[in-house]
Amino acid sequence: MRFSRRKFIKSSSIIGSSLLFSRSISSDLFASTSENKPIVVSTWKPNLKSNARAMEVLLEGNSSLDAIEEGIKVTESDPNDNSVGLGGIPDELGIVTLDASIMDWNGNAGSVAFLQNILHPISVARLVMEKTNHVMLVGEGAKKFAIENGFKEENLLTEKSNEAWLKWKSKKQKTENHDTIGMLAIDKMNNMSGGVSTSGMSFKLHGRVGDSPIIGAAMFVDNKIGGAVSTGNGEYVMRTLGSFLIVEKMREGFSPQNACEYAIERLFKSRNDFDGVNVSYLALNKSGEVGAYSLKKGFTYCVTTTEENKSYESDCLMK
Ligand code: ASP
Questions:
Q1: 34-51 burial, b for 16+ CB within 10 Å, e for fewer?
Q2: Structural domain span for residue 196
Q3: For residue 99, which atom of ligand 1 is closest to its CA?
Q4: Which ligand 1 atom is the nearest neighbour of the CA of 179?
Q5: pLDDT at residue 6, rounded to an integer
Q6: Which of 69, 135, 163, 184 is the most exposed place for a label (fewest CB within 10 A)?
Q7: For residue 276, how many other CB atoms are within 10 A of its CB?
Q8: Per-residue pLDDT tens for 130-154?
Q9: Is pLDDT at 21 greater than 50 in this prediction?
Q10: What CATH number did the domain enclosing 105 receive?
Q11: Could you tell me if the CB of 213 is within 6 A of ligand 1?
């Protein structure tokens, strides 16, 4: 059985748990070679709820692409999550600007960057992938495309995020905010998809785009091998195409854990300006093995199987 071989990383510790399904699922149900037990992983502990939704979608027999979209939409709709979608911390001008990307098991990809006033950038990214010959749409063009496809314009700046911006504006104090959702899922047909959605760095320069919409930077999926997602300072991820690198190392035979460690070590050796900077990676291979590693401490991630929905804290390089 594929899942009896799953190993979680040795250095992780369980920091939260919730039982997802009261109904137990017979392992025989998935014994055939054409049906597999699904799995969902995502960055950051609060996204357990998004993983739970994605797993529901998978258990209904839907694709990993549907699961990624529906799971990430949960985080995008949450006004209390201040770094994705509604309630996202704005840029230096007090404007919420969103980046997202999605990739399926056929190597198709779509992304949006600097998108404003649209609640579900992950769904717009999917439409870019499915309805156009392009991979990325940005800014006004992305918004026009979204509206033409039935999305409504809405205000995403909540009272709470506006207050945070006013406070920052008056004091201009440095704030750290890294809570991008990056998610990977394998469906019953053993197909993997991935997605990322974020409002990016708090109080960033107007016009700044991060790693999240760059395919290969914050997210990459190769259905033969596995996938990876990132969170943290996007500039450090974009310079090294970390997610692509991790998938390539897994192709060479690295475990997801070793591949994440390799990417962080390589980043660490390449620069010496890590003050106030963190970068974290999460990877999943086609055998259902999970790996996670971070430059600095504090990175949490969620792993959801048919049996459980749990969060873990990853190990880090700079202790
Ligand atoms: N990677 C995101 C960005 O740089 C930030 C984050 O992960 O919170 O836009």
A1: eebbbbbbbbbbbbbbbb
A2: 5-318
A3: 9
A4: 8
A5: 43
A6: 163
A7: 10
A8: 999 999 999 999 999 999 999 999 9
A9: no
A10: 3.60.20.30
A11: no
Given the residues 43, 75, 97, 180, select the one marked as catalytic: 180
Q: How far is the CA of 115 from the centre of ligand 1 (A)?
A: 15
Per the structure, the count of domains in the chain is 1
Give the pLDDT confidence score for residue 176 in this predicted structure.
Answer: 55
Q: Using a 6 Å cutoff on CB, does residue 248 contact ligand 1?
A: no
75 is catalytic: no
Query: Which pTM value belongs to this model?
Result: 0.90
Residue 302, CA distances (Å) to 152, 256, 290, 292 in order: 31, 15, 10, 10
b (16+ CB within 10 A) / e for 247-261: bbbbeeebbbbbbbb
Residue owning the nearest CA to atom 4 of ligand 1: 234
Q: Which amino acid is at 213?
A: P
Contact 72, 86 (CB under 8 A): no
Task: Say how many Å lie between the CA of residue 196 and the centre of ligand 1.
Answer: 10
